[in-house]
Amino acid sequence: MKGCISPSVHLSELQQIHTHYLFIIMLKGLQSCWDSDGAIDMGCRVTKSNQLQLKACDPAMRAALLIQRWYRQYAARLEMRRRCTWNIFQSIEYSGQQDHIKLYNFFGYLMDHFTSASSQRNLVSQMFRESDMFQDVEWERQFCYKDIEVPDVYGGPHLSFPLTVSIVTELVDAFKNKQKLHARYVLQLLGKTWTLLRLMPNISHVCSCKHTEITICGDLHGHLEDLLLVFYKNGFPSAETPYVFNGDFVDRGKESMEILLVLFAFLLLYPLDVHLNRGNHEDHIVNLRYGFTKEVLGKYPVHGKMILKLLQKIFSCLPLATVIDQKVLILHGGISDKTDLNLIAKLDRRRFVSALRPLTRREADGDDEDVSAGRRRVQSLTHGLTGQSRQELPRHSELHSGSGLTGRSRQELHSGSGLTGRSRQELHSGSGLTGRSRQELHSGSGLTGRSVDEELRERRRLAGLSLSSDSQLGSAEVLESDAEEWKQIVDVLWSDPMSQNGCVPNEVRGGGCYWGPDVTQEVLDRHKLKLLIRSHECKQEGYEFCHNGRVLTIFSASNYYDVGSNRGAYIRLGPDLIPHFKQFQASRSTRELTLRQSVGRTERSALQALRMQLFTHTSALIREFQEYDPQCTGVISVKHWAEAVEKVLRLSLPWRVLRAQLVTSTRDGTLNYQHWLNQLSVIQTHTEIANTSLLETLYKHHSNLESIFRMIDTDHSGLISLEEFHQTWRLLSSHLQTVISDEAIAELADSIDFNKDGSIDINEFMEAFRLVEQCRGVGEDEPAPQ
Amino acid sequence: MADKYNAETIITETQKRISNAFDVFDHESNKTVDVREIGTIIRSLGCFPSEAELHDVIAELEEEEPTGFVRYEKFLPTVTKILLERKFRPIPEDLLLQAFEVLDQQKRGHLEPEELTKYLTQEGEPFTQEEMDEMLSAAVDPDKNVILYKDFVSMMTFDDSR
Pfam families per the record (chain B) (predicted)? Predict the structure, then answer.
């Protein structure tokens, strides 16, 4: 045997010995396999710990032991699969949120690059129409419901004001029976909600009386069934059963509108006992992307846009946090090391319309006639700088402590190194929206060649500020405080906890921070608080503690990723301020599925999502595979496949474990990658589009595209003109720095079946590129065809 | 020479498998896992230890002062040895079937849920109620309300070979 183990010259001696040792063990293992093949091991092995079992070797006992041993292994394998599936969904969800960064930067890019001469200007100003300058009274007149008639044939619920318990109960029942509330009542209800919310402070302070327990719910995301389940188990909101709802009521699920109406109805009924916190999804631009806008327009084709506009106002009026007994802080996302509740209490939250839209100037400053909108980007970091430091434009470090950056190993962590020759992204960093991966860092094509000074001057000009030193200083003050307030709010709505100490920008989400246990301690102690309750992240059991029990995540949308993926939970908090949990899982079908079936089903969804991700990276994958296949045989080893995929996708997943599910035909540990990639593209197109990379680009950005298209379609008619379609594409392609020729776009437009003169139906366009999207909970039950 | 190459490859591949499985449960990305997940990890790698054997392994993996966590530096060599040694070998299908037949004293070809529950929650290394419920949900034929163990075994072992 020794003769076979000739040491390789490259291994160190220790390694050689180690390998040799393992080799022996392996051989022994093989040997014993042969030896004892016939012997029946019924678990009566003679080890120290088995002496107990040695005594009772009766057949039934031995049989039971065997079955137990076997089943536990099976259950463990299921658990492993479930965990992997979970990780897949989380990775994809968070990496998908990086699209937000792209979107934000795209808007900024648009604002930078339009010229007054070009027709693109109209396009952009359409998107950023500053119609918010009206007074509230004006708006109330706009939102008036009084002229909307409810026809006699209407079979849905009726509302009359002031609301009573029975009216609201009937409303809930109606929704349970899948009825829809008439637009008139919707607007009426929303209008009253808006009036009420305007009176509320940024932070609600609640007292738990001696005998009541407060119920706290996390993300609902349009899952009406879960909300109803909570009400069923816990009771409707009332003076005896106060509730806090911690944001993210909408998006993803299909009954977001109903959830809002129910929550607002209870809010109007019991304004002192129902508390709503804003979440990062209470944001109209996020809604464009994640389904709420679509839902509203689908349910209310005539009045949808009015409803959405009113909701935009309501969202910005939602309080940002709730504090119980001055000891327990409840807010949606989290905190950062700079979080200051006093500051948050004082700011004007209504100015903060969307995380993805620059802060507008205060109305008081006047000068609002010049509404070439979006020219006012008042929170650029540069305005806070004095002359000397203009050369260095540090990234983030002004606003983040960037302590140690011990934090996350996620992708690219930017250190506070001063970067000269600004890119537009750096100048945005004051907005609190962080993070570009190094790959996506554009030097802002077209902006190169200018010195920093010139650049600053240009920006100030665009922002409408004069160059005189006085006003510079004045505006510098205003702007810095804006930047600070902005950051406070974004941190509250978007941050996530991490286990390492410190506070670093949340690159994955594109907004807020990752904050560590030291920050929790410092911030909570500084405010004399005991516990932070937040939501924002899906948890398998519906809740999870971290940071030595001082941070609690609560999530109330069960089956969030797919049927069987997770439970929802809510908290009951008594005067002792010790949280008690109740878990639940909606959907009768979950309970009927065996464990194996529900794991399998969720797994299929996750795998399909993963396949889509792989597909969007086809070109990059091919390039990477070819590195391992210099002879262009078309075949690579499974090992190299895993390495390549990990590198390209940059999703930290157990690729080897997943390989069996993603690559079905391997031979002798190798696979034909071209063949495999072809199999991935299960695209249903109504058209013949030869250009594969256009397809990939389209698919990769389809969510953003949809958001952008919907923004262009300001009258929400579902149609945009051919010219607008072209313009958007041109802008997107120059932003992405990929070449998408006008001809290709024209071909695309032609091949889509549009039959409205010179207009494209957005829905048709998006449908034409639909991959089977069951992972987004679109309601299909069938697994994807393999 | 070819043998050596294969041996090294097998060893390396084994260690990669172990590393991947470990990573799935390394929630903090700091090369530690909760000691309570060790059983799941080892079993998912294809081992079939009894609970008692598992406790021995855990005892070996724990620190002198148990922290509740197991470090990768200890995990890897121990588990590599276990896998290469094929220490906790799978249970062949026919053996499993025999075990069920032993419990089926009247040789009816099926077992009542209550019977199986009694055996598995009282004998050997007893199941928890949760484990029992999970197994029953997969094993019990919904129409006849009995466990047709022959079908059950073939269905489950087919799954295993995926």
Answer: EF-hand_7
pLDDT of residue A465: 34
- Return phi, psi of residue A452, to 5°: -60, -40
Which pair of tokens denotes residue A213?
């327990």
DSSP secondary structure string for all residues of A362-428 = PGGG---S---TT---TT-GGGG--SGGGG-EESSTTT----TT----SSPPPP--EE-S--HHHHH
Whether the model pTM is above 0.80: no
Longest dimension (CA), chain A: 97
Asked whether the beta carbons of residue A68 and residue B24 sit closer than 8 angstroms, the reply is: no
Q: What beta strand segments (E) does A403-501 contain?
A: 418-419, 496-497
List the one residue out of A186, A187, A183 whose CA is nearest residue A143: A187
Residues 57-76 of B with CB under 8 A from A: none
Output Rg (C-alpha) for chain B, integer angstroms.
19
Run of H or E including A92: helix A59-96
Min distance B53 CA to chain A CA atoms (Å): 7
Which residue has 């148990």 as its token pair?
A: B66
Among candidate residues A72, A30, A79, the one with its CA nearest the CA of residue B52:
A72
pLDDT in tens, B115-154: 899 999 998 899 998 889 888 888 888 888 899 988 888 8
Give mean pLDDT, residues A10-18: 63
A686–B contact, CB cutoff 8 A = no
Predicted confidence at residue A607, as pLDDT, reads 73
Angle at CA B41, nearest 5°, toward A537 and A676?
75
The DSSP letter of residue A667 is B
